[in-house]
Design goal:
- The radius of gyration is 44 Å and the shape is elongated.
- The two termini are 55 Å apart.
- The protein has 52 helices and twelve strands.
- A ten-stranded mixed beta sheet has the order 8-3-4-9-7-6-5-10-11-12, with helices on both faces. The protein has a two-stranded antiparallel sheet with strand order 1-2.
- Pfam families: Ion_trans, LSDAT_euk, TRPM2.
- It is a multi-pass membrane protein.
- InterPro entries: Ion_trans_dom, TRPM, TRPM-like, TRPM_SLOG.
């Protein structure tokens, strides 16, 4: 470190591996003048060191030494580079390392604070409690130790505080260390790391401090004290850091007082980690000796608040007595105050001297003590008294809060709101219980401006309980959250968070585009891009509307980027606008950070709870794919699963209440989520549990069957497809329209999970189509027609047309038609390959083959139509969405192979190749049947299990290939010394060992002892010409052993491993196979719901019709309806009501647990104890008032009995205030 850095006082370079800068910055003090101690016969200096330990320069000047009578640290010592610093390991303690530093008593406290924060990595404090007190264990009472354990340490842990103390295994320092260990043992091991104990002790008083000396630093220094007494001055292993203050003395106390006061004063001027206010510093006095008056006086002059523990003994009792029972002046007659001022001061000093003699009768320098006590008395407003018997150790954190607030009120009286200061401390400490009991108990009228800044602090620091508290007490989120405030929240996301990393990546792209923009920060554009990347095509982009960034979402990505950059480089007036959906914005913000409690609270306050929970699930599962850290990924997945279960449970409440409205929730387009629907969001979020709900499956079944009765036999559908006029007969039963409308208005959930798949139809394609045509009143898509009025307010269609549409518009009809025609296609394909495959032109192809070509052409047209009609912006994005489905890839492969085979078979030179390709393509087309039968309730789960097992088989093939290659190469090399034929080598290295697994073992080829009738030769020339080489018999025994080992490994180990893997996969998938099947069933229903009614090859008619009319089929509006107006508001309110019912049920379950019952019982007991203490406090107050009244009357009587000019013989009586009265809030 340079000298310039040292002079500036900033620790600018703190290298972990090279601590050589520490001796240049921190010093120690060495005595330079020997001042003889009059009680040591010339062998001891007043610094505490022996004459022999002083350097020769300190002993040389006898004249100057003779005239000096008092040794002073600043005059008679000098600074030298420190020789004791680093890490400290307590031998035999088995604890983590502590940090230590020997420093001069005149060291700049800013250097010390920086090294503790930057180099030692101590957590930033929200509070500093500096404890002073007795140095002998006999003076620390048992109840005081309980206060330290249950009060101080607990409060420090809950508030994130530093505790500064003596740091030695003596008196109060040892008690605090034991309290930390006991509290950590009673709670958890993690708690110990949250309580930061810092010891500040004199270097010369530490026992065996020479073990710490190392000019280059100790990492660590082993500290061991032999036969340490219980009250020795050795370091305590419970402390995290030690500041060993060196003033040049040895074995003397008090050298650290000045530095400790300056360090506390410096810390009190630093900001908390949330940077909302300065770090509060509270000094606590427990017992203590008269010598501690100096530290008390210095701290009070620095305006530091003090909390004195009443009844703890020593100096604490003296201070309590002075603060409570002393008054500055007695009652005097009018006009006599100025004349008697000197007399009154003398009387006050006399009374203080009496108090000192009462508590410290052996002290000699009484005048100095009186001066210090008088100085303390003059600053008594900063002193508060705490009586543990009346307040209780559990209320210690509340007491600390009140003391700090009262001290702050006295310093800034009339400038700030005292209640706001108290709330600021409670928010920083994250003590919502204190805020509820002391600040939000109905006695204080909080306004919006008072809570706005605290709301921001609570949001940024992830304190959902305070957010809930502020919302419950007057803060309106609609007036609070602006787009600018939302940008500040996103800008506060940590870079360690996965969402923060992704936002920074998007921001860097904008910075690269506009490198001259130095004020570039995270804006809503980066947030919008992140959400678009995570949500994909599920919904419209966020924050791109005219109210916000005003970017056209239909434009290209490059144009949208330039438009957003222009807006951000301007005035950004949108930042002053209020958010349209504030709770949804906060929910997304919390979800991206995986703040579970905050996200759940925002979800509770947000509307459209089912869709919002599914949206959060989608975001989290996409983030988990980007996350690298295992623990973070598990946490994100758990939160995603929790949101999915919440969506499932809320929808279950809706379905149990009214099934018809719950169906609307599933297919309604949401304005909040950019026209997304619950079904669309659930399929994107891979929400299998949600899809397995009976209500979702019931809706899908109703859409699947349309207006036909579910459970209709398949042979009836197939027969009607072959003979269409049968649809006008009673072969297939359809719903009666009047009954159907009555069912829609009176629909109730089925009585069981089984019945839900065979209940009555609520929705059909015809319903959705009619709804899309009703533009005048879109809110009444499922209206209740009045008597005699047709549904949807339209004329009733003729029976022939309506029945025709009911049959052909049902997706199940389309599916059955496609299945039948696909079987015919496979039969035709097989017929062509086996019977009617003609030679190349001009002799072929046959007419049946031309029919096959046309059939495949219509299938290709359907695939093109499906890719074009995908819901995406650009053609490239549509292709990407189309390719995401594995069965679409399968179709493309089948059609591509067919085209390739068709082209090859037309030429004589490639005829056989083309026929081979077409044969392989037939296998691909046949395997396509697996997807078709995925709709079947029994076959569907088995297909899922088959797919999982195929994945497992690939891992098995990897292990098998390793052993095959190893055995095959070794076996071939041992049997044949030379064989240049690649064909024979390949068959014998890979193919023959593979056949060994299935029992095909040609012993005569492997065992050379067996006779082999094949003609072979050892002539190399003939072998090179292709002749079979003879076997090598020299390694026959090794070949047999390898065969045995190979069969043992493959047939027993690997095959059984594969069987075990398949069994595990089957049992695992079988448990939730129904859930998997229900989830995949949706895609198949969507596919056939959106397909034209006719199957290939007749589907070409539908394509020609759509091309001529240039109007998209009404079937593309699948699973989505638009609800507006009163109907939409009614549906949202109904959904919110069901959410409230769900939360009430969950809350009742939570309250019914044993832990919650114990908490409530404990709270009631605490309340009773507080009431008892309050009654006791009031009784003591009444007794004090009665005593005061009695003494006052007696004093008045004595004064009146004397002449008016005579002075009263007795002093004016003083009112004895109740001990804890100073802690009561000012009313």
């Amino acid at each position: 470190m340079s000298q310039e850095d040292i002079e500036r006082g900033g620790v600018t370079v703190m290298q972990e591996t090279d601590p050589s800068w520490i001796p240049h910055l921190f010093k120690k003090r060495v005595c330079t003048t020997f001042v003889e101690d009059s009680f040591s016969n010339g062998g001891l200096c007043q610094c505490g060191s022996m004459r022999d330990t002083h350097p020769s320069g300190a002993l040389g000047d006898n004249f100057s030494t003779a005239i000096v009578s008092h040794w002073d640290s600043t005059q008679h010592s000098c600074e030298q580079p420190t020789d004791a610093f680093g890490e400290l390991e307590f031998a035999g303690a088995g604890k983590r390392h502590s940090y230590f530093l020997r420093l001069s008593s005149t060291t700049d406290p800013s250097w010390v604070f920086n090294i503790m924060r930057e180099h030692w990595k101590l957590a930033h404090p929200n509070l500093v409690v500096s404890v002073f007190g007795g140095e002998k264990r006999s003076e620390v009472k048992t109840w005081v130790q309980e206060v330290l354990r249950q009060g101080l340490v607990k409060a420090a842990q809950s508030t994130g505080a530093w505790i500064i103390s003596w740091g030695l295994r003596e008196g109060l320092g040892r008690c605090i260390g034991e309290a930390v260990r006991d509290y950590a043992t009673a709670t958890s091991s993690v708690t110990l790391s949250k309580v930061v104990l810092i010891g500040i002790a004199p270097w010369g008083l530490v026992k065996d401090h020479q073990q710490l000396v190392n000019p280059e630093g100790s990492f660590p220094a082993k500290y061991f004290v032999k036969n340490a007494a219980r009250n020795s001055c050795s370091l305590d292993n419970s402390y995290k850091a030690f500041l060993l203050v060196d003033d040049g003395t040895i074995g003397r106390k008090g050298g650290e007082v000045g530095f400790r006061a300056r360090l506390e004063e410096y810390i009190s001027r630093q900001r908390t980690d949330s940077a909302s206010f300065d770090i509060p510093v509270l000094n606590m006095l427990i017992s203590g000796e008269a010598s501690m008056l100096e530290a008390l006086d210095i701290s009070l002059k620095n305006s530091m608040p003090w909390l004195v523990l009443a009844g703890s003994g020593g100096l604490a009792n003296l201070v309590c007595d002075i603060v409570e029972n002393m008054q500055s002046a007695p009652m005097t007659s009018t006009g006599g105050a100025e004349k008697e001022e000197g007399t009154h001061n003398m009387e006050l000093r006399e009374r203080l001297a009496e108090k000192i003699m009462k508590y410290f009768p052996s002290e000699r320098e009484m005048d100095k003590l009186v001066d210090k006590v008088l100085s303390v008395y003059q600053n008594k407003d900063l002193i508060s008294i705490y009586d543990a018997e009346q307040e209780g150790s559990d209320d210690f954190d509340t007491v600390m809060l009140k003391v700090l607030v009262q001290a702050n009120k006295k310093q800034v009286s009339g400038i700030t709101n005292p209640h706001a200061d108290e709330l600021r401390l409670a928010v920083t400490w994250n003590r919502v219980d204190i805020a509820k009991s002391e600040l939000f108990n109905g006695n204080i009228d909080w306004k919006y401006d008072d809570l706005k800044d605290f709301m921001t602090d609570a949001l940024m620091n992830n304190k959902p309980q305070f957010v809930r508290l502020f919302i419950d007490h007057g803060l309106n989120i609609l007036s609070y959250l602006t787009y600018g405030q939302l940008e500040d929240l996103y800008d506060s996301i940590s870079d360690n968070c996965q969402a923060g990393k992704l936002l920074q990546q998007i921001l860097n792209e904008r910075k690269d585009e506009f490198s001259n923009d130095k004020k570039c920060r995270i804006s809503l554009y980066e947030v919008s891009q992140l959400l678009e990347n995570l949500l994909g095509e599920v919904c419209q982009p966020f924050y791109m509307s005219k109210r916000c960034l005003d970017v056209n979402t239909n434009s290209t990505k490059r144009k949208a980027f330039k438009k957003a950059c222009q807006v951000l480089q301007g005035e950004c007036s949108y930042r002053k606008s209020l958010c349209e959906h504030p709770w949804l914005c906060l929910f997304i913000w919390a979800v991206l950070q995986n703040h579970s409690e905050m996200a759940i609270f925002c979800w509770e306050m947000c509307g459209e709870s089912v869709l919002t929970a599914l949206g959060g699930c989608k975001l989290l599962r996409e983030l988990s794919k980007e996350e690298i850290e295992t623990e973070a990924k598990i946490s994100i997945k758990e939160m995603a699963m929790k949101l999915e279960n919440m969506a499932h449970d809320v929808f279950s409440m809706c379905y149990q209440t009214k099934a018809s409205d719950s169906y609307k929730l599933l297919i309604r387009k949401s304005n909040m989520w950019g026209d997304a629907t619950c079904l669309k969001m659930a399929i994107a979020a891979d929400a299998r549990v949600f899809f397995s709900h009976d209500g979702v499956q019931s809706l899908l079944s109703q859409i699947w069957w349309g207006d036909m009765e579910r459970g209709t036999e398949l042979w009836k559908l197939a027969l009607t497809l072959i003979i269409p006029p049968l649809c006008y007969t009673n072969l297939i039963k359809f719903r009666n329209e009047e009954i159907a409308e009555r069912e829609k208005s009176l629909m109730v959930p089925p009585p069981s999970a089984t019945d839900c798949h065979y209940g009555e139809t609520v929705f059909s394609f015809n319903d959705i189509k009619q709804h899309s045509e009703a533009e005048q009143d879109v809110s009444n898509n499922i209206r209740r027609p009045t008597k005699g009025t047709p549904a949807y307010g339209k004329p009733k269609q003729p029976f022939l047309l309506s029945r025709w549409r009911q049959f052909w518009y049902a997706p199940v009809t389309t599916f059955i038609g496609n299945v039948l025609m696909y079987f015919l296609f496979l039969i035709l394909y097989a017929y062509v390959l086996l019977v009617d495959f003609k030679p190349p032109p001009p002799d072929g192809p046959a007419p049946s083959e031309y029919v096959l070509y046309f059939w495949v052409f219509t299938m290709m047209c359907e695939e093109i139509r499906e890719a074009i009609t995908m819901e995406s912006k650009t053609f490239a994005q549509r292709l990407m969405v189309y390719a995401q489905d594995k069965w679409n890839k399968f179709d493309v492969l089948a059609i591509s192979l067919f085209i390739a085979g068709l082209c090859c078979r037309m030429f004589s030179w490639s005829y056989n190749m083309g026929r081979g390709i077409l044969c392989m393509d037939y296998m691909v087309f046949t395997l396509r049947l697996i997807h078709i039968f995925a709709i079947h309730r029994q076959l569907g789960p088995q297909i899922i299990i088959l797919g999982k097992m195929i994945k497992d088989a690939f891992f098995f093939l990897f292990f098998l290939a390793v052993f095959l290659i190893a055995y095959g190469v070794a076996n071939q090399a041992l049997l044949y010394t030379y064989d240049p034929s690649p064909e024979r080598t390949f068959r014998r290295v890979l193919y023959r060992p593979y056949l060994h697994i299935f029992g095909h073992i040609p012993v005569e080829e492997i065992d050379t002892d067996k006779y082999w009738d094949r003609d072979c030769t050892d002539n190399l020339t003939l072998i090179n010409e292709g002749k079979e080489p003879c076997r090598d018999t020299s390694h026959n025994w090794l070949v047999v052993i390898l065969l045995v080992i190979f069969l043992l490994v493959t047939n027993i180990l690997l095959v059984n491993l594969l069987i075990a893997t398949f069994s595990y996969t089957f049992s695992k998938v079988q448990e939730c196979s129904d859930t998997y099947w229900k989830f995949q069933r949706y895609n198949l229903i969507v596919e056939y719901h959106s397909r034209p009614n006719l199957a290939p090859p007749f589907i070409i008619l539908s394509h020609i019709n759509n091309f001529i009319c240039k109007e998209p089929s009404t079937k593309i509006h699948h699973f989505a309806i638009q609800i507006k107006g009163r109907e939409a508001n009614k549906l949202v309110k109904w959904e919110n009501l069901q959410k409230e019912n769900f939360l009430a049920v969950e809350g009742k379950k939570q309250r019914g647990t044993d832990s919650e019952r114990l908490k409530r019982t404990s709270a009631k007991v605490d309340g009773v104890l507080k009431q008892v203490r309050d009654v006791d406090r009031r009784l003591q107050s009444l007794e004090a008032e009665m005593e005061f009244c009695t003494s006052s009357l007696q004093w008045i009587m004595d004064t009146l009995s004397q002449s008016s000019t005579a002075k009263g013989a007795k002093a004016q009586p003083t009112c004895k205030v109740v001990v804890s009265a100073s802690l009561d809030r000012e009313k």
